[in-house]
Design brief:
By secondary structure, this protein is α+β, with helices and mostly antiparallel strands. The protein has ten helices and eight strands. The chain has a six-stranded antiparallel sheet. The protein has a two-stranded antiparallel sheet with strand order 1-2.
Amino acid sequence: MASQTPTTHEAGQDAITGEEIAGTTIPPSTPTSDQSTSQKRNACSFLPSHYSLRSADFIPVTELLSSSGKSPTKSSSTASARHAPSTSTTFSGRAGLGAYTYSPESFPPSRVISFDESYVTINDLYPKSSLHLLLLPRHPQKQLLHPFEALQDPLFLAPIQEEVRKLMVLAAKELKRRYGKFSAKELKREEAMEKALDAGQDIDESSLPPGRDWSKDVISGVHTHPSMSHLHIHVLSVDRHSECMKHRKHYNSFATSFLVDVEEFPLSQEEVVRRKTGGWLDRDLVCWRCGRNFRNKFARLKQHLEEEFEEWKKE
């Protein structure tokens, strides 16, 4: 199996710092107290029992993507064993994400949101937006390949794309839960609903203001030069608002073509070359929302992003 450990050239294109690479979480030696090795988690278990996708506009969503979830449901006791590495169970540095695919039940729900035999979803340890998730495929023949190689396989790609779409739906619902109270479009919709209820009228969906389309505020993709060895797909909010957003390369890794949407795969050879030789991390810093060019002035961009975050919430 080909490994995607960066070459000398690729290492210079790391989108994260050496400290972030070295700081990858190592799992505890035993599962957390409320989890056992015979359990799995489902992101939907973090919703109240009366929640449904259809009722999402009317019933407040509890925290989907944090430590407040319910206990996981059962699964096969051999799930982690089937994904065990052949040589070592020590994960550090660039191999750090392997700890999650090898033993997801060892982490608390605040880190591992959901897992089954095929995928693990986690909150990024160093998020670059207010919501930043990683989808980790557990396929033993694919998980150490470069994404440009792994996602060229149509039989592997199709279920990955479907899983990313599902995760983006959940991410959009979480954004609505977190920021809906600030959104002018959401408030307008709620006011119309309250007015109809106060008048004793049945709520006609077609007559209500549409509210905010939170799906437009979620992006996803893989990095052209991944800094971590295990295959991972980013799903994150567009705001780039995070204490961990500290460097030019942090920002440009999610604001340029360095990030490749999984829907764009399979890539042509010409596109692979374009992505790998674009010098994306060294490009000018351009605000994702207003298009203002900050050249190489990251501190100014960072301050601007704080302002844009507040305005973005109000849309």
